[in-house]
Amino acid sequence: MDPAMSPRREAPSSPDEAGEVMRAAGAEGRRVRIRGGGTKWSWGRPAEPPEVDVSTERLDRVVEHNEGDLTAVFEAGLPFARAQEALANAGQMVALDPPFGLPGEGDRATIGGVVATGDSGPLRHRYGAPRDLILGITVALSDGTVARAGGKVIKNVAGYDLAKLFTGSFGTLGLIVEVVMRLHPRPPETVTAVGVSGDPDALGEAASAVAHSPFGPECLDVSWDGGHGEVMARFVGAAPEAGAREVVKLLERAGLDARLAADDDDRWNRQRARQRSADGAVVRVSGLASELPKVLRSAREVGASLVGRAGLGLSWMTLGEGDVPELVSNIEEVRRRLHPFPCVVLDAPAEVREKVEVWGDDGALPLMRRVKARFDGPGVCNPGIFVGGI
Amino acid sequence: MIDDRLVERFRHICGPEHVLTDRHELRTYESDGLRHYRTPAALAVLPGSADEVRQIVLACHGAKVPWVARGAGTGLSGGAIPVEDGVLVVLTRLNRILEVDLDNQRVVVEPCVTNAAISKAVGPTHFYPPDPSSQVVSTIGGNVAENAGGLHCFKYGFTTNYVTGLEIVLSDGEVATLGGKELDWPGYDLVGTFVGSEGTLGIATRITLRVTPEAEGHRTMVGYFDSIEQAGQAVTDIVGAGMVPAAIEIMDKLTIEATENWTHAGYPVDVGAALIVELDGSEAECDARFDDVMEIYERNGATGTRVAEDEDERALIWKARKAAFAAMGYVSPYYYVQDSVIPRTRLAEVLKRIDGLSRDYGFKVANVFHAGDGNLHPLVCYDARKEGELERAEELSGKIVLACVEAGGSITGEHGVGLDKKQFMTAMFSEQDLQAFQRLRCAFDPDQLANPGKVMPTPRLCGEVPGPYRKHPLEQAGVAERF
Lengths: 390, 483
Known about the structure:
The structure holds 2 protein chains of 2 kinds. Chain A is α+β, with helices and mostly antiparallel strands.
């Protein structure tokens, strides 16, 4: 193998080292690829291979856990599951449950990777996405700058919110070194109301009724697989059953076959796991809650299975087996049917990624290019993988 | 002075009646909620549509004239103070609710719709959680600029958690559409980046907000304590028990006296502190937690409690709290309000420092406190008619801010940096941090025409966009290597 093709490996272990690694890459004009646990490594547009592989594996400490203040400071390479384990001892959590992020799922997704991709799971219904829970950030830019924004308190408006800018930026602005997260208490009890139906309209009506109800579920998901659909709402707290029972009634009223399910971890872990696919293609649809029936019918038409945050209009559609041309044409078909909703291809075989525009619509691209140019002048941070080839 | 041709251009864009140049008319706009800062604008223009905003900004860009956007002017950091020889873009005519899409829990508005109007438009089944005390007057555009908070932030979050889409006019007159009703638009989270940027990145002309269902039940209960420390410990116990109440507020003795004078809400004036806790959720959840809170009140030595029996009493309890700033006029002719944040666990220690400083300076300091999220509003009471008092009150206020930063907190939780707190930015941020902020500013507004002189402690330039790395010819030829 041509040695020039093998990227230089760097694994900084402090913010200063991270700054130096990034500065060197910027000065040399070498393409950097940032790697956490590698679980979302393939996401984004196909791009030229990196010349420097920057791993966050040695940035893996819980820097602070301020239990009484409900905040924690983590280094970016800390496995998400390990962060959650550390917090669980105090009855607390980062209220995010992305795939590969729970204890028992291995030291895989890292906190930095989850923030950089903005990934989330069913808890998003109540607590929001990484953007909603991040309080502060430390980043290393490609000119060696190590900068911090935000703070360590749960309320703070001093300075620009660079934590939000970097959240979901896929490493294209710089390396996330450290993050400050808001924590929540881990609720004591859980119970789930589940309703079953094969009718997209009934599922949509049921989900809407729950989303607009005053009972406040922690999670509200939909599932669709081979004509079998479910709406599920998880209740937590000191008295979760009362709300769940009311929701069973709402689900029944919409024509679903509904019941309470007590031991519900497996169900929710399945929902999380189905946001990913090892060999198929996953399309994340940013839709509207009211259009859930349309999204479900689109999934049915192309033979896809689906999980989604029913109250938020977000769905993950898995296009399973099929050869490359079929996957590509099904992705295009989903986009055509659901236009103008953004449909982003997350997991997909490399041949498929070559043939579709994974990000779809580019949004405010000229302004995004200006932001990129200011933060990563040399253009070395994960170049080419983001919207519009940023 | 604004060039006559530019004035003519504005008259052409908005109609002559919407361009103010008279010195007396302009006095209305010379300050915002912080009355001790005053700068007269050279000219105020009141556009009637998003496109008129765009044309005004474009004209300013052509003439390289700076401008400041303004809503209701209730801000408490001097963020909407005009710049001398600049244009004030007064957005009050952009006050329409454009769409209520309850099916999708979205409301689309122009910037000068008031905060309270949103909840009214979607009630009683839904509400818009960020609720600054000024909500009857303050506008969504201003809320977006400052990332406004309020009483219900601890559970529900801030403005930034409720804005899903923006149409903004950039300082070069370009219009950018960021996000929409849908979540997770591809690309950078420029919506989240813009919210809280204090009018320095552009003008939001169309704002899409998320609203949320009202909870089934509410329990609002006040505990009275001899000391603010006891009330603080009760908050620690509540949070430690795993509860996330919708609101947790503390008022000290001086604040209670002031608000009671005005609102007659029935708070006893002989207590040291009042702790207001509001629970929401299902009725069953509220019932279960109600007893827990009452037990915690008792355990921390509450001398009395009050529970809202109905919606009217709930409103009355909150009316007193929301009137705190305005009511301070009963205690002192002038006050200086701060907005610092501390890690909540450092409350007792920081209050002791504030108390010491208060005695050193001989000024009363009242405290209102968003206790859940550690946001303090110390109100320094002084008399500006007495020589030197304003300066000394400012000095005391500054020391309080720095004490909060030293405790690991922030200079501002919801009011913004504006003019008032920019001098403290260096206490929180290093030069590298400030330079990173400046990169963002320059990406949006390289000529720095949008609200210049705010947020950043010292003026700085933008410079050229750094170009991509290119190989030197000697490197290309393999003659030299770069180290």
